Sequence to fold (1132 residues):
Amino acid sequence: MNSQSSTTLRWFPAFMATGALLLLAVLMLGVQLSTENTELVVYFAASERWHLILAGAVLVFLVQLFRNPISAFWQGAKKHNPLSPFQLPSLDDNKPLKRLLISFVVAGLMVWPFFVSRGAVDLATLALIYVMLGLGLNVVVGLAGLLDLGYVGFYAVGAYSYALLSQYFGLDFWSCLLIGGVMAAIFGFILGFPVLRLRGDYLAIVTLGFGEIIRILLNNLTSITGGPNGISQIPKPTLFGLEFSRRAKEDGNVPFHEFFGIDYSSGYKVIFLYILALLLVLLTLYIINRLLRMPIGRAWEALREDDIACRSLGLNPTAIKLSAFTIGAAFAGFAGTFFAARQGFISPESFTFIESAIILAIVVLGGMGSQMGVILAAVIMTVLPEFAREFQEYRMLMFGLMMVLMMMWRPEGLMPMKRPHLKLKDHQSDKKDDASVNRQPIAESV
Amino acid sequence: MLKSFNKKMAVFTAVLAGTAALGSASIASAEDTIKIALAGPVTGPVAQYGDMQFIGAKMAIEQINQAGGVNGKELEGVVFDDACDPKQAVAVANRIVNDDIRFVVGHLCSSSTQPASDIYEDEGVLMITAASTSPDITNRGYELIFRTIGLDSMQGPTAAKYIIDSVKPQKMAVIHDKQQYGEGLAASVRDEVQKAGVKVALYEGVTAGDKDFSALIAKLKKEDVDFVYYGGYHPELGLILRQSAEKGLDVKFMGPEGVGNKDISAIAGEASEGLLVTLPKSFDQDPANARLVEAFKARSEDPSGPFVFPAYSAVQVMADGMKLTASEDPEKVASSLRANNFKTPTGELGFDGKGDLKDFSFVVYQWHSDGSKTALTK
Amino acid sequence: MPESAYYFIQQLLNGLTVGSTYALIAIGYTMVYGIIGMINFAHGEIYMIGSYVAFAVLAGLALMGVDSIALMLAAAFIISIIITSTYGFAVERVAYRPLRNSNRLIALISAIGMSIFLQNYVRIAQGSRDIAMPSLITGGWTFGPADEFNVTLSYMQVVIFIITFITMTLLTLFISKSRMGRACRACAEDLGMTRLLGINTNQVISLTFIIGAALAAVAGVLLGLYYGVINPYIGFLAGLKAFTAAVLGGIGSIPGAVLGGLILGVTEAFTAGYFSSEYKDVVAFSLLVLILLFRPSGILGKPEVEKV
Fold:
């Protein structure tokens, strides 16, 4: 952009853009379709709407008109203010501090529920379910670069595995947690196997189709899954056989509070569920971080960056994609099992495409590949609607807009991850640092 | 031995819980209000139905307070939004328990009511739903869960009885929308009419939200049925009626209250003339409720929604139960609800062991293309 | 003819009607994909917006006392095409153009975001309730015995066939004969080369989105009139089905989109007619998966070579 163009006013584009905006808005925002008795009628929308449209038009006109000066100013501001985009601080340099910090945070998260209200703990549990889902989908979308729009299908498989196994065979939560994860992984493997040869955008549609097929089948197989009625009275998890209810549901079982001889408090069950969810999230984080540092994790990211280069290096793209897909599905299975236990009742309507879209929005907002970002995004997405109920109405609108804007401005997310990278250390102090990330020669600095 | 120990412990904990309840009651008396949670969708796609429930319940709370309250205290309604999402319903239930509210009128959607009621039962909260019609809700032997609206399984037999006695079809079809409400009703109608020897030639589901039913209509035409029962809501049945008229399928249709909405006439136009619909009695048409209807109109609220009066009754029976037992212990109120009959705007209500109304009658109406209806049965 | 033959013909006609509208929407997907290689996920929502605009125009004219059906239809088509074209143009400018040279995944997520945004924008502007309108064109023909199963073909179905056919012909002529059409084909072959030859490829891409949106508007008006009911969610499923049709026929190929649409429509009608409506969508999605597995380039598509 040269200096001459930075002062010219763009009359023509300004008029065009304003005209386009009016065309877009007038027949959609400006009028209101409605049914009066049984007749279709249309009338002009409330005057606030029109004020809104006019304000928008003026804004667009001015922005387009002064676009050159504005962008020139913007460029200048950028030059003078070399504020690099916010990145998560890396603690790789200081391992003991990192460990200390992590254990403090975990301890804080463990103790916290005993001091707050039951509602807050329950909300936190819900947020943790989304953290788990976000982390799992992050493996597939963020790390391996496979757009999975049917992720909720595996979530459903996990939830229904537990619900059905406990209903028909009386299996308890703990064995089902494992089975649910394995079942979802098997589904991921079987569905992924033929599909992963496809190119990225076909994959998105096919996974979307699979997600819908799983939901429709759950809805149609009424004799097994209860169809739209869902499955109710799914037992809550027990602590080594101790139930968290006021009265033992099965004869011979002792409720938790009686075993320890303390007063019954409804809070215990909620706190127990929360701590369980927290442990599951920590386990998920641990597994994913281990995997990331293993060759397979490197291969995921390499594949995302350049498919063809990977192939020419002798990596088998299908096998690598399949591993990411399967592992992602397994985490959805865990989350699903836990969800079924928390709800006590599940039906196919909890597993619609919207859920997939919300989980994807979490991954996108958090930054594809960034685990801290995903955790933060999941917490924001679940907690925000509770504080601003009006937000509920506009939630999906915001999600959609945000997905577009994030892709344009910061595809790496609000909190991009600083990847572990090769570093030459000038002193040989930490020799015992066994086979750690920093020694892995595959990863190059990003 | 262990068992008897357990029993003792159970008694002990019950006593503890009782004292805890007394404790909280004494706190409540300091505030001089009894809180009732009104749980249902404030936002989301079915918020308009949530409104019906809220205006009914709020009106009841206000009128009871004007008449002197309950046991010397005022009632206070607290609205909780579950957006008809099962996830959020559980969160709402936990918050209600957390806020020490012991009486709930809600939720609206059966799939929200079901997981929430697990928590209420476990935590000793009395819940009365004014809108959830799924039989599963009261089928689990719970003590604190009630409803002031009829069940899907009651509406089915009413429809089936009318079909068997008055329509007398040679060969009929039962269609549903694969949702909890629609399929439950359809199955109950199918079973009832088959028992009476009516031939059901086709029993099939359609996808809610679908727009093209031409293939299904051709099938109905080929099967040569002369009567169709549809379990589901008005958008799909409206389209089926409209497309049937275009495709020359000339049979009579019948549907549940979910289709009894003016919108069906907007969709199907002339084709909605003569449709049979089972609906709860229109309580707002009942001359005994004229004053109440006036009170709603005075606040420019619409009393004609199907859940307005049941929600009013839910609050009223709760209050009457508290008055009868002179306590705010949900368990005592629950047993009093089972033991007594209550005079409410929706009639004389009594509850059976499961917590359902002993008697809730549905009426068969004939629908007209201008959105009005005439009653065919009493 | 035996009854079963009439039944077969009836289901075939039903399937072809639905299929033609899938085809109209599918062309929008296929043209965009052919030229810039991305799935315009928001296309289904453009179709839905087309329906809403048509309803608003028809209701407005009816309130003003216009009662000539031809005039109402013409106005609905023209205004709806103008407005959806603007939407198509704006969506491309805002959500896709800045991302044209980035990773496919990024463009695709942006497109999904746009689709969610548009759906909820209409939901908030117009409410999520169904909006219904009486049929403008009623009546039809009946073939076969009067007392047994007979085939009906409504005038509206014929209108759908004719308008689909006319639109397809015009589009084919445009693509093969006009200067701009040739530029479109050149862009589909090689975008970079076309730019080097002095063609404004941005203009061509905008035009592609406008044409796609205009066809979606045609489908929106036709289906809005045929079914008479719209809500903000109709775009999602229709878009998904149309995309399936485009892939089935070979994405990037216009005759392929038409063929794919018709095959999908007929398959659905036969599934519902001979098996059960419950499994209509399962069969449609399974068909998509199978085609992608065994013939990823579709029926009429060219196999694609991935370029470095």
